[in-house]
Design a protein that fits this description.
The complex is a heterodimer of chains A (114) and B (113). By secondary structure, chain A is mostly beta strands. Chain A is 0% helix and 56% strand. Chain A contains no helices and eleven strands. Chain A is globular and about 40 Å long. Chain B is an all-beta fold and 113 residues long. Chain B is 0% helix and 50% strand. Chain B is built from no helices and eleven strands. Chain B has strands spanning 5-7, 10-13, 19-24, 31-37, 43-50, 53-57, 65-68, 75-79, 88-95, 103-104, 108-112. In chain B, the strands form two sheets. In chain B, strands 2, 4, 5, 6, 9, 10 and 11 form a seven-stranded mixed sheet that branches. A four-stranded antiparallel sheet of chain B has the order 1-3-8-7, with no helix packed on it. In chain B, strand 4 and strand 5 (43-50) form a beta hairpin. Classes of the chains: A mainly beta (114), B mainly beta (113). At the A-B interface, strand 4, strand 5 and strand 10 of A face strand 4, strand 5, strand 9 and strand 10 of B.
Chain lengths: 114, 113
Amino acid sequence: AQSVTQLGSHVSVSEGALVLLRCNYSSSVPPYLFWYVQYPNQGLQLLLKYTSAATLVKGINGFEAEFKKSETSFHLTKPSAHMSDAAEYFCAVRRNSGNTPLVFGKGTRLSVIA
Amino acid sequence: EPEVTQTPSHQVTQMGQEVILRCVPISNHLYFYWYRQILGQKVEFLVSFYNNEISEKSEIFDDQFSVERPDGSNFTLKIRSTKLEDSAMYFCASSDQGGDIQYFGAGTRLSVL
C-alpha cells in the first residue's frame, strides 16, 4: 500500500522568502512521486515528477524537489516566493509500473505575504 | 495546449437523483481516471478505464457508480442515486500510453441537497 503525508495544511511565507512544502511517502515498491498545484477554480497542474532518474527534480515556475529514499521524503522548494505562487499544493505517489492511480496527500495551502 | 475539459463546473441535485458528470480527455490519450475530493479531505481515486473497460477501482466505487465512454471523445461518471455524502469535487484525468503524467480537468463540484 502507498500513502503520502503532507506536513502543514497551511504555510505562509513572505514574498521573496524560501518556500518549503514537506511531503513524506510510504511505499512497498519503488515509487513515482509528483507535485501538483491547484490555483483557485482550476484543475490540478503538474509541477514536477520523480520517476527514478535524477533525485533532484526541477519543475515549472522555479520549483524543485529532491527524492530522499533514506528519509522517504520528497519536499518541494523554491528559493524566492512570488505572490503568484499562492495556491494549494498536492504531493502524490503511485506505483512505478503501468498506468496506476495516484495516491494524494491532503494538500498544503501556500499563502504569500507582500 | 491540449487540456481535459469537464462539464458542468457545478452540479446541484436532490438526494436520490441520478447525475452524470462529463469529461472530454485529451484526444490521443488512452487511459482515463476519476478522482474526487470531499471538502477538507484528500483527493481520492475512484476508477481508471482503458480499452473500454475498468482497469482498476477503489472501495469507494461501489454499485452506485458507473463509467462509460459513449463515443470517441467523452468519458462519463454516473452516480445512480446520489447521497448527501457524494457531495464533492470530482476530477477527471487522462494519460497517454506512457502514462507517467496524468492531466487533470478543472473539476465538477457536485452538491447533493
